Amino acid sequence: MSDKSGLTLIAVLTGVAIGAGVGILFAPEKGSKTRVKIKDGYKDAKKDLKSKYDNLSEEMKDKLAVAKTDLEGTYGELVSNMSSKTEDVISFLETKLADLKEQNARLQKK
Length: 110
Prior knowledge:
It holds the Pfam family YtxH. The protein is mainly α. The radius of gyration is 35 Å and the shape is rod-shaped. The termini are far apart.
């Protein structure tokens, strides 16, 4: 998304520069009127770029919020699964320990 935004920004700035240059070269009006038009065009382009930047910034904030929520959910599931697995491992080890104690007791009697 940022690659497209960067290219759009470059395209807009290039368009503004070319438009201003062509406007100056072929201006049928006085220089003062031409400068006002260029200034207004610059302000419009600046406002448009700021709007695009604000929209992109808001979109990125929304995506980061969603990613954070997804990550927190995944982390919670992982912790829950690990807790369950840990209990299974402990139960298995306790069973094996009991079996070994029983075997040891039988060997001690012989």
